[in-house]
Amino acid sequence: MVKTAAFKLSLVCAAALLSACSMTPKYERPAAPIATDWPAAGVSSTSGGASSGPAIAAADIEWQNFFSDPKLRLLVDAALRNNRDLRIAVLNIEQARAQFQIKRADQFPTVNASVTGLRQPNPNGNGSISSLYTAGLGVTAYEFDFFGRVSSLKEAALSQYLATEEGRKTAQISLIATVANTYLSLLADDELLVITQQTLSTREDSLRLGKLRFDNGVTSELDYRLAESLAEAARVSLAQLVRQRALDENALTLLIGQPITLAMDITLPAGKGLADLPVMPDVPAGLPSELLARRPDIRQAEQQLLAANANIGAARAAFYPRISLTSSVGSASSRLAGLFQGGTWGWTLAPQLVLPIFDAGRNAAGLGSANAGRDIAVAQYEKSIQTAFREVADALAGRATLGEQLRAQQAQASAEAVRYKLSDMRYQNGIASQLDLLDAQRSLFAARQAVVQTRLAQLQSQVTLYKTLGGGWKETPATATP
Questions:
Q1: Of 8-12, 69-73, 132-136, where does mean pLDDT reach its minimum?
Q2: Do the beta carbons of residue 148 and residue 442 sit within 8 Å?
Q3: How far apart, in whole angstroms, are the C-alpha atoms of residue 257 and residue 251?
Q4: N or C: which end of the chain has fewer CB within 10 A?
Q5: Coil, helix or strand for 217?
């Protein structure tokens, strides 16, 4: 019993030594290599068509509240449940969690129960066989973490796990925005198809009339061939749009991870367009420094920097002595039947100290690699901040200018519509040539297409701004520690 108590005491002492010193450098967050405010051109105007009211930070708006279109909500919900990229991101978290638990377990002794039997000829050469049976508990090569090598590796694994969790948040934000933008593209495809079909019908009517006038010698073949060319150009545009819509629908199907159901039917009601979609709320840009706390990809880069910093501590500790312990307690007997009888108990204690003397520069190279890894992580962290700043600034520039561009293009389309009506009246009365009428048709078609494309760019810019400001993910109460 005394021997058993001594063994247990050795385990308690080993656990007490876990609070060893650490050689990990003190972490200091690098200064953000960005301006203290957004470019003035990006915040001078509000987004066209945005709802008024008190502004709420994008990261505090759940995607269900940002997107009020029921069909879009169904699509996003399906993507969050079925998208394979997001599923891989979740599984990466589980793998990183397991890796962290492995490193954390290295801080504690591993106790194993074992039963062994050994039979071998006696060395005296008389032909007899000796036997030895043992049973007990043992600790093999447990390392006393005096210099923090094991704890540094554990901290590095923890930071990698947290980085993977932030990576999943980034994947979710990106997925939601991509689904929304693809959905908007499909609706724009539908609106452009309607415009193109209407234009094709008008041009076919003009072609039939031009053919009749040409056959009767009223107009030249030049006017007829121009009308034919414009009709075929409309057919080309129609074929391109049909193909583009199919491609966009295939992309959306891949994003949501399942076929598009009837409940997700992505078609615009007759007479409706992008302008009739529910309004998305406006979101304030805030200060650039807020990105450090709001953007999961920046937090992911910082966790990777923390992991690289912890690896330096482990590399430094490799220069110092490593003390390990192998011990066992149990019973030993030459007869299996007497293995657990009185007087057969025993224990062993075998500490080992290893001091690096010559390793051909291996430890120095390991430290150099860890330092370089930390410098790489710093550069990646700074780049993630700069990339986030650029993305938000670009989205703000779109918000500031697309509203005015849309207004101007709508006015241009209205003017072209009036011009086409007047040209048609003049042509019917023999005042204007067919060339004037066809030119008015072409200009009206281009102007109507530009309105749809600009409105699409404006809506997608709102989605992108929401994404770049960290929207699409809301912090939930902390879960259990891994």
A1: 8-12
A2: no
A3: 10
A4: N
A5: coil
Residue 21's identity, in one-letter code, is: C
Place of tokens 């120095």: 364
- Long-range contacts formed by 269-273: CB under 8 A, 24+ apart: 273/187, 273/191, 273/452, 273/455
Alpha carbon distances (Å) from 449 to 185, 272, 438, 460: 13, 15, 17, 17
The Cα 285–Cα 293 span in angstroms is 14
Q: Is 312 helix (H, G, I), strand (E, B) or coil?
A: helix
d(CA 266, CA 253): 11
Where does residue 171 rank: exposed (0-12), middle (13-18), buried (19+ CB within 10 A)? buried
Neighbours of 123 (CB within 10 A): 7
Structure tokens at 293: 């706390």
DSSP symbols for 438-452: HHHHHHHHHHHHHHH
What tokens appear for 157 in the block?
Answer: 């694994």
Burial of 478 by CB count in 10 Å (0-12 exposed, 13-18 middle, 19+ buried)?
exposed
Give 304: exposed, middle or buried? Use CB within 10 Å, 0-12, 13-18, 19+: buried
Residue 305 CB contacts under 8 Å (≥ 6 apart), including other chains: 27, 30, 374, 377, 378, 380, 381
Phi then psi dihedrals of residue 47, to 5 deg: -75, 135
Higher pLDDT, 429 or 371: 371
Digit-coded pLDDT (tens) for 270-304 = 778 888 888 898 888 888 888 888 899 999 999 99
3-state secondary structure of 189: helix
Q: Quick count: other Cβ atoms within 10 Å of Cβ 57?
A: 15
SS3 131: strand
> Measured between alpha carbons, how far is 90 from 81 in angstroms, rounded to an integer?
11
CA 173 to chain centre: 7
**From the candidate CATH numbers 2.50.20.10, 1.10.287.3610, 3.40.50.720, 1.20.1600.10, the one assigned to the domain spanning 67-105+147-320+356-468:** 1.20.1600.10
Burial per residue of 148-167, b for 16 or more beta-carbon CB atoms within 10 angstroms, e otherwise? bbbbbbbbbbbbbbbbbbbb
pLDDT digits (tens, 9 = 90+) for 74-86: 999 999 999 999 9
Q: Position 354: which residue type?
A: V
Q: Are 207 and 231 in contact (CB under 8 A)?
A: yes
- DSSP symbol at 330: E
